[in-house]
Amino acid sequence: MAGLHKMFGEYAAVRHVDLTVAAGSFHGLVGPNGAGKTTVLSMAVGLLRPDGGQALVFGVDVWKDPLRARQLMGVLPDGLALPERLTGRELLTYVGRLRGLDAGTVTARVDELLAVMELDGDVERTLVVDYSTGMRKKIGLATALLHGPKLLVLDEPFEAVDPVSAATLKRLLVRFVAAGGSVLLSSHVMALVEQLCDTVAVMAKGRVVAAGPLDDVRGGRSLEETFVDLVGVEIGGGEGLSWLVS
Ligand SMILES: Nc1ncnc2c1ncn2[C@@H]1O[C@H](COP(=O)(O)OP(=O)(O)OP(=O)(O)O)[C@@H](O)[C@H]1O
Question: Where is the ABC transporter domain (predicted)?
Fold first, then answer.
């Protein structure tokens, strides 16, 4: 992405952001609440029209050639709206056919994805409307993977996912990158980004304030310490709320 810019009224939510995810890299995007991560990712994948700048996926302009760009990308947006009154299998089958995969391929991939995401067995009778938040993340990730994309763009993929499922998702993403895929994910969890990502960008107030290989950005410290320095916030400050306990 180059020079991506977005105004909401008078407020510049994203200010001329440049970000490159190298092929085969696992790229983390971190930043405090309201930094502009979701806005950047939404513009990068074609869900929110930028006021300026360009988003390219392997050279394909997301806004000029959306169909080709979508073939190359798998997207897990924040607050994904899924067709609710379907089971996970029905949803994946529907998405697979929409994406032009033949019936045999869809069935085989849906079987595999439901098993990997542990959404098979008894859970198969549950409608998506009755899924927990973590289960919705998992089925959302499965829909993102279904067509075999080269790049995954994931907004907070681990939010509300239990530790066991998170470990499964991590293994899956590491495998995806090892097989040549690229991942761009946003997260609030520094430990997770340090564990998974080789490259990281830190956003604050709509700008990228640091970016590069993980070790360069954290410079011998933990990512959390670097993050606090860069965005100028105190973690766990004791001020205020004196009424909370007496
Ligand atoms: N549709 C919108 N209309 C108006 N303002 C918006 C809209 N979407 C986002 N914003 C504002 O833009 C800023 C960036 O929001 P964004 O959701 O991109 O941040 P974020 O880094 O993803 O935050 P979080 O970590 O809390 O998810 C915030 O100040 C938010 O209030």
Answer: 2-230
pLDDT at 208: 95
Share of the chain above pLDDT 90, in %: 74
Per domain, the residue ranges of the chain are 2-231
Confidence of residue 238 (pLDDT cuts 50, 70, 90): low
Q: Which CATH architecture has domain 2-231?
A: 3-Layer(aba) Sandwich (3.40)
Nearest-angstrom CA–CA distance, 224 and 97: 43
Model ipTM? Answer: 0.96
From residue 235, alpha-carbon distances to 42, 67, 166, 192, 229 in Å are: 28, 43, 24, 17, 11
- For residue range 149-200, list pLDDT tens digits in order: 999 999 999 988 888 889 988 988 999 999 999 999 999 888 999 999 999 9
Give me ligand 1 centre to Cα 7, in Å: 11
**Is 153 within 8 Å of 44 (Cβ atoms)?**
yes
- Rounded to the nearest whole angstrom, what is the distance from the C-alpha of residue 118 to the centroid of ligand 1? 32
pTM: 0.91
> From ligand 1's centre to the CA of 39, what distance in Å?
6
Ligand 1 pocket: which residues have CB below 6 Å? 8, 13, 31, 33-39
CA 223 – CA 190 distance, rounded (Å): 6
**Residue 240 has which token pair?**
């205020």
Nearest to residue 113, comparing CAs of 145, 84, 85?
A: 145
CA distance 208 to 222: 19
Residue nearest to atom 1 of ligand 1 (CA): 8
- Amino acid letter, 238: G
